[in-house]
């Protein structure tokens, strides 16, 4: 494991090191120490140079990316050098210092090897947090994007102080649980917490809502946020070393979260195949479907809802979708998902979820915002095998919603019902075949005369043929309106007293609106 002087400063704190460390504490360059008995002719950034003060020239000539640990008090100008420089005004030999630094390197290398072994052997991720308490003497908390507790650990030998008792009682939760609703509401209303999602490097969260600070690091897979690693300051005060260690641990956890085996070890092995075949409208033996549903504890005729999730970013981040889907399984009480056409497709069982379909959007909104995801919800259906139709329904709703309301986080079928019907009507037709002949005559009359009769007819129908409301909106005299509506009916040659006629005309107006947005005025 590479180190830096920020880390070693903590290991040598009994020697009271002083100096200047200009680089960020999470930048790690050093691979091994070198004890120098003469001033080096050249320097490499991956070596920690151990020098005695008498070897230093009067004027520093070391590049800024070099690290020097000096034994003895250096010339004053060295305290302002551009490189990373610490000195120890202490009566120990260079050999003793070299041995201590070498042992420190070995200690951190042993820790990194443990992290790699846990990753290689596919052990649970909480093992990484547990083995890190030899170096990180505080609470370690890994939070998924849907406020899911992936792991939360404490050093076993920590002194039981009042703060730690308070922490255990109020915050420590078991793995794979979800934060309480009141805590989630508190967090999503906290400006500092919401800003934290933007941080790319280890940062401090003031903890004004908690009573203790947290050091956090956002874990990303292919530049997409998948989890947040936190160290809670409830045992030992933070040092610069913690900034380096949280990034190392977070990067290893990120590797674990990005592997398919970690993301899918609890899911039925045939699930992706079955879902893909259903989405492609292929026939599947009912026994296979039943076997998968039985493993989930679901019935084929339970109430279902298809949910499509897409990243708002335009880049191809498909590799990050799997860990994102995993992070949402607890919130949605469903591992029935697949990655399809660059989207996460979830099938939600409303009975298992324990809520009505109208409650689901608010339930899933926090992780949508955390991960820059947009969602589309189908209507409820009662036959799992009909996924193909409801997936395509949600897909169309997603397309319509992003065109009409691009800033929204989610789109519900019920909010775009008319638009959906118009879309389906137009799907295999040119718009003209859906416009009644009478309305086409009226539009042609308007084009020749500039009369605006079609617009007036539309207002009249929208106001349910209420004359007072129509003339108020159209801003015209009653007698003028009565004259024009008679003229409209002469041209239209359609009976406006018939509800089917009125419906056909209103649908036609919606089709015209949709066509105008796509190609210009009808």
User: How many domains would you count in the coordinates?
Assistant: 4
Mean pLDDT: 87
Number of helices: 20
What's the end-to-end separation, in Å? 67 Å
Note the beta-strand portion.
Answer: 15-25%
Biggest sheet overview: 5 strands, mixed
In the CATH hierarchy, what is the architecture of the largest domain at level 2?
Answer: 2-Layer Sandwich
Q: What would you report as the Rg, rounded to the nearest angstrom?
A: 33 Å
Could you explain how this protein is built, in words?
The chain has 522 residues and is α/β, with parallel strands linked by helices. It folds into four domains: 5-103; 122-258, Beta-Lactamase (2-Layer Sandwich), CATH 3.30.450.40; 268-424, Alpha-Beta Plaits (2-Layer Sandwich), CATH 3.30.70; 431-519, no CATH class. The chain has 20 helices and 15 strands. The chain has helices at 5-11, 94-120, 126-131, 162-170, 181-188, 191-195, 240-258, 260-264, 271-279, 286-296, 321-332, 350-353, 360-371, 387-404, 417-426, 437-449, 453-462, 467-474, 478-492, 499-519; strands at 18-20, 32-35, 47-52, 67-71, 84-88, 139-143, 149-153, 203-205, 214-221, 224-232, 304-311, 337-340, 343-349, 373-377, 410-412. Strands 1-5-4-3-2 form a five-stranded mixed sheet, with helices on one face. A five-stranded antiparallel sheet has the order 7-6-10-9-8. Strand 12 (337-340) and strand 13 form a beta hairpin. The chain is elongated and about 110 Å long. 32% of the residues are buried.
List keywords for this structure.
522 residues; alpha/beta; Beta-Lactamase; Alpha-Beta Plaits; 4 domains; 5-stranded mixed beta sheet; PucR_C-HTH_sf; PucR C-terminal helix-turn-helix domain-containing protein; CdaR-like_regulators; PucR_C-HTH_dom
């Amino acid at each position: 494991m590479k180190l830096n002087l920020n880390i070693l400063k903590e290991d040598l704190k009994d020697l009271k090191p002083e100096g200047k460390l200009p680089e960020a504490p999470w930048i790690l360059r050093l691979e091994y120490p070198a004890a120098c008995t003469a001033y080096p002719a050249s320097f490499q950034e991956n070596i920690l140079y151990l020098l005695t003060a008498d070897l230093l020239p009067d004027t520093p000539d070391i590049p800024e990316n070099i690290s020097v640990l000096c034994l003895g008090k250096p010339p004053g100008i060295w305290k302002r050098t551009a490189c990373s420089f610490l000195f120890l005004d202490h009566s120990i030999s260079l050999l003793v210092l070299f041995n201590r630094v070498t042992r420190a390197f070995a200690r951190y290398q042993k820790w990194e090897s443990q992290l790699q072994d846990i990753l290689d052997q596919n052990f649970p991720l909480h093992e990484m947090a547990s083995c890190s308490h030899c170096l990180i003497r505080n609470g370690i908390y890994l939070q998924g994007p849907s406020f899911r507790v992936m792991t939360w650990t404490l050093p076993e030998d920590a002194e039981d102080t009042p703060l730690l008792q308070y922490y255990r009682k109020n915050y420590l939760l078991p793995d794979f649980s979800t934060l309480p609703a009141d805590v989630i509401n508190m967090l999503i209303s906290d400006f500092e917490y919401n800003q934290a999602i933007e941080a790319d490097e280890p940062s401090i969260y003031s903890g004004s809502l908690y009573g203790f600070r947290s050091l956090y690091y956002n874990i990303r897979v292919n530049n997409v946020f998948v989890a947040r690693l936190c160290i809670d300051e409830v045992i030992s005060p933070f040092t610069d070393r913690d900034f380096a260690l949280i990034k190392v641990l977070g990067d290893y956890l990120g590797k674990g979260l990005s592997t398919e085996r970690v993301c899918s070890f609890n899911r039925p092995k045939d699930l992706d195949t079955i879902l893909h075949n259903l989405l492609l409208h292929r026939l599947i033996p009912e026994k296979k479907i039943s076997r998968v549903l039985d493993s989930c504890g679901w019935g084929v005729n339970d109430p279902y809802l298809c949910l499509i999730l897409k990243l708002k970013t335009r880049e191809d981040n498909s590799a990050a979708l799997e860990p994102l889907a995993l992070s949402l399984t607890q919130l949605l009480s469903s591992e029935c998902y697949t990655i399809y056409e660059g989207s996460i497709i979830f099938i939600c069982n409303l009975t298992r979820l324990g809520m009505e379909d109208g409650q689901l959007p608010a339930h899933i909104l926090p992780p949508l915002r955390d991960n820059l995801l947009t969602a589309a919800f189908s209507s409820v259906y009662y036959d799992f095998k009909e996924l193909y139709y409801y997936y395509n329904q949600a897909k169309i709703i997603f397309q319509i919603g992003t065109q009409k309301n691009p800033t929204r986080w989610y789109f519900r079928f019920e909010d775009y019902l008319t638009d959906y019907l118009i879309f389906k009507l137009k799907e295999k037709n040119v718009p003209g075949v859906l416009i009644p002949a009478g309305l086409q005559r009226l539009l042609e009359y308007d084009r020749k005369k500039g009369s605006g009769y079609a617009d007036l007819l539309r207002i009249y129908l929208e106001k349910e043929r209420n004359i007072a409301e129509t003339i108020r909106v159209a801003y015209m005299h009653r007698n003028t309106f009565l004259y024009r509506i008679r003229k409209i009916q002469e041209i239209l040659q359609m009976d406006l007293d018939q509800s089917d006629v009125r419906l056909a005309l209103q649908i036609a107006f919606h089709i015209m609106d949709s066509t105008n947005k796509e190609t210009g005025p009808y």
